[in-house]
Amino acid sequence: MIDVVGFLVSWLTLLGIYSILALTLNFESGVSGVTNFGKVLFYGVGAYTAAALTVYLVLILNGFDVGRTPPYSVEGIVALGQLAGQNPALNLALFALSLVLAFLAAGLLGYLLSYPILRVGPAFVGFTLLSSGELMRIFLQHFEPVGASKGLMSIPGPFAWVPEPRVRELAFLGVVLALLALTYVVMDRLVNSPLGRTLRAVREDEVAALCLGKHVPRLKATVLFIGSGFTGVAGALLAYYLTAVNPGMFVPAVTFNVWAMIILGGMGNLRGSLVGAVLLTLFDRLLTFLTPQLGITVISPDYVRWFSVGLLIVALLLLRPQGLLPEEPVRTPALEELEVALRGGGSG
Amino acid sequence: MTSPSQAAVKRAFDAKLAAVAIIALVIGIAIGFAAAGAFQPTAGGQAAQPQPGAPAGGQAAQPKKTYTIGFTLPLSGELSSIGKIWEKVVYLAIEDLNREVQAYGFNVEFKAVILDDATSEEKALQNVQTFAQQGIKVVIGPAASSQVKAVKSFVDSNKIVLISPSSTAPTLAIPNDFIFRTVGSDAGQAKVLATLARQEGARKVIVFHRNDEYGNAFAGFFERYFKELGGTAVKMPYQTGLSDYAAEVASLASRVQAEGADAVVLISFDTDGGNILSHAAESPVLTKVRWFISEGPHGAAELKSPTVGEFAAKVRLLGTRPLFIANPLYEDFKARLKEKYGVDASVFCDTLYDAVKLAGWAILRAGAYDGEAIRKALVEVAKNYYGPSGWTIFDENGDKANQDYGVWAIVKTPQGYDFKDVGVYERGSIVFLEKPYP
Amino acid sequence: MLPGYPYSIVNFLHYFFFYLLFSLPLTLSYRNTKVINFAHSNFITYGMYTAVFLHGLLGNTSLPAAAAAAFLVGGSMALLNNIAVFRPLERRGASPSLVMIASMGLWIMYNYLLYMLADVAHFFSRKNFVSYSKIAYSDVPELSIAGFTLSQSFVASMLAALGLVVALYLFLEKTRLGRAMRAVSDNPVLAEVSGIPRDTIVNLTWLIAGGVAAVGGAVWTCFSGTITPQSGDAMILQVFTVSFIGGLVSLLRTGLGALAISFIENVGIAALNTYLGVPTSFRPFLTFATLLTILIASPPLGAAGGLPYRFRRRG
Questions:
Q1: Does the model's ipTM exceed the 0.85 cut?
Q2: Taking CB atoms and an 8 Å limit, are B275 and C283 in contact across chains?
Q3: B30 to chain A: nearest residue by CA?
Q4: Model pTM score
Q5: Is the Cβ of C6 closer than 8 Å to some Cβ of chain B?
Q6: Domains in chain B and their CATH numbers?
Q7: Is A101 at the interface with chain C, CB within 8 A?
Q8: Which end of chain A is more exposed for a tag (fewer CB within 10 A), N or C?
Q9: A4-25 vs A165-191: helix axis angle to the nearest 10?
Q10: Residue C34: inside a domain, yes or no?
């Protein structure tokens, strides 16, 4: 009846990608206080880097002249479709390469953007990044080499040579979850370290941190580099998952979706971001199975679905204004020693 | 600051609370899920309980086979004005389909499952995945070409037949996939529009078009054909998705003046078209040139307003659209849609209607509810089907092979303004059946 | 010769009035409440749809009546948001980002509620409300100046915008309540200590903000050729841009921002298109580029709560 495995695979893949976004956003905004409203900018840069790199290289390495059959033309697309499954080594190599390049491109962009952000002051960081995101989107809509308004399609995935679609999906899910685990470990190590403590200090009171000698600009630049880098990786994964990219996919609404996830889950708590991502994606997916059965014809039943998502957000926030999981103290080795000592002393 | 042990206890409690909350939420939804599953007729052709609303004849004895068709429509977002009308077309089409198959003696019923994709690529993919996970093998939609591109790889891998009634991107004309389009390429229409403009005396036109794949491709085709006919075309793209286009129209006016153009060719959808035309009505420059329009704004209620109607008369506005002239099936479809659901048939309603009918008959002809079989059957069924959108035969890429074109105008009627088909494209020139403007 | 003259000038002024009507309430609401309100676009859209429903269902052709109704609808929506969501959250110590996301949840709810209302209205009246044409009102005149006509919506928006500016100026400068409002926006704690009822002021702020934005929406219905439930969302980024140029606190700078943005969007893009061949589809790009230039060149004070940080060189 209902293909539960298929449901789980498709849900978990998107959940994985969104979780990477949520983790990095929590790292940037929840822990370090850099209100990033422009998440989608780095997401899009990562996606387009991966997409452009893959389609161009596949065509060039197979002897096509991309001047005459560019990857966004019909001939190019048909060629890409045919070449997709032929060379497993090439697919996997390009996949790995584009993940690395997506990380670097998005990370570098984040690092560069930290300069104007520092100039406009903490209150305007959000909107500055949001505007940059829109600038990038409109630019991509006019930039011919990446397909302008057509976007790129028929991107050969890393497992396109696998004949069974279910196995392909599972393999891709495996990669997504592995990258999610990597992101979580990196973020967790960064947050639970002296650096994490410093970032929290910057978040709470920048001037005080400055007075204590912390180099705030460099810290913010580092945060944006790492956070945006992993966001770029998530973007690359999205590009491979949808096998198509289009400027219209990278609108500010995406950023605000991710913000809802981290606020619901609890700012400053990495596991909270995962919880928030699970909540929002699962609720929506499950409702898509339910709402068509409602049998209402006066209004489109799907409107009830979206309405419920908004209602869920408001209700959860009213119930738990701090988010579901509160922020925890920084878990460094020193803290653990202290805990052990207290516990040992207390139970004596 | 709380001591670490207290913090640890608090953490554990909070984690447990969160876990309980989430588990409760998931269980609640799963229960709702299962309850819905108990009510929902199974997809995929298994025998269902006798339907309470059995057709005239009242036979509850023989259980009907139910086939489900999935629809992913833009009910919110940029294309929602079209999507809402499509929703009604789907209801009408499913009713007609059920009546027809019963008349032929099949003991089956078709059911529609409609999901909103908010004109977003990711949500379209999620909807198609939801359909696949419910066992649905035929999906109609999505509306935008970018959405079709995002779902293509999934439907090809999972062997789901996808029929889009409105995607016209030339980059999707790919053979041997599971994507079918009941709408023809814009190249043919661009040729007709170029012929129309040329025949009406335009020598230099400004092509004011949407900056998306539809607009860019159409404008490119138009430019090529108009040049072949000996004219000059200047392309002027405008950004889509804005709430108002007054600034763009002002730029257009100044460009028309600067280039000395004698006509404007507008390539748009319904909402932006209505907005642009009502602003153009206020510009002295733009009311002095001829206007030629693509099929996007045809049928939209905004163009029947007095402002646009008067503007149309002033500039002798003419548009082209895909049309099999004097097709009684289209007129009948339009009338029934208006009478039963109170909506005017706008662009792509006829292709959507035919997509539903084709899907239904293909499922029956296939003999098995299986993607490959339905795909083969669809090609065969389409060869012999003639509906409101005319002859539906597919070409080797799964797109509509043959298309005739007509010319429309906005004329004054006793009730106000309305659309009227006034000409046909025949063998390289436009033949007018009546003069729409004095 | 200015490109697009004279109509780009007329449009420039026209958009200036609309941006005043949409952005001044936003700045006012932020500076008194420190809430970045996503639901602001809903005030505008619901204002439009109040006028649309009155016209489509009841045949109303009077703009002042539609505007008054819109004011009530927008104002009560804003009040409801505050009483039901924002105030309880603030009482429980929620951070500003949290309240912002709560307003985002409200935005989603209001959006789809409007779609549902349009469906219900269609069910009863057989008219399509998801896309509605321009409304021609019967009691607002067109003006003829020096040979060309200023449309109905120009007159209406001019009157509304100028009325708003004058009213706000008089209110905030001359009345006690207005001065109390300014006190709350400058320093809420001190204001409360000196006896000003902060809650009442905040409620009043929301009422004005929602109401005025909705009135702007009602006037918009005689300007734009198509009204859809997306109309407010499609322009909200520009509205926020204008408010951000004002630092979200300065009403004067917001007005100047409205001037700058409407200039760029109308005259600027026409000039770039005619003389430099920049495609018209770059218009939103220009808006954001202008915002970034202004923000980076002269960062506004006030909203940052002090001196903005400037990158300092080490040593």
A1: yes
A2: no
A3: A286
A4: 0.87
A5: no
A6: 65-183+348-391 (3.40.50.2300), 186-323+404-432 (3.40.50.2300)
A7: no
A8: C
A9: 30
A10: yes
